[in-house]
Amino acid sequence: MIRLTKEFSFEMAHTLAGYDGPCREIHGHSYRLFVTVRGVPVRDPQSPKYGMVMDFGDLKHIVGRLIVERYDHALVLRETPENHAALEAMRGTYTKIIVTPYQPTCENMVEDFARAIAAELPVGVELFSVKLHETATSFAEWYASDNL
Questions:
Q1: Cα(20)–Cα(22) distance, integer angstroms
Q2: Is residue 74 within 8 Å of 52, Cβ to Cβ?
């Protein structure tokens, strides 16, 4: 088995509804996302993917479509009765507002991202881990082995 990791980055704003600290206010982060997959490299010398577990470009396309394109420069909010009016007002001006059923913490997002990415990987390639840096020194990690 070989593991491959690709790094991604995006800018995103969020607010933590009901939180008892400063993150209850709208604020943004420069996120860094590390996606690690694992598998056996293709052994057929006639295959265009010979020697690869997965084409890095294919991984870039999957994560780009599911995560980066969706979340980059978006505002992410948890759906609550208290923020309904504010959401409606903002939707008239802003187009990249994502409403989630969960609190958009680093921990919840890394779990959501892992679920989405794992469902799109090709046969024979498994998601090994996802690490999401919210700041340069703070991150959450998801490992497949912890979630069997």
A1: 7
A2: no
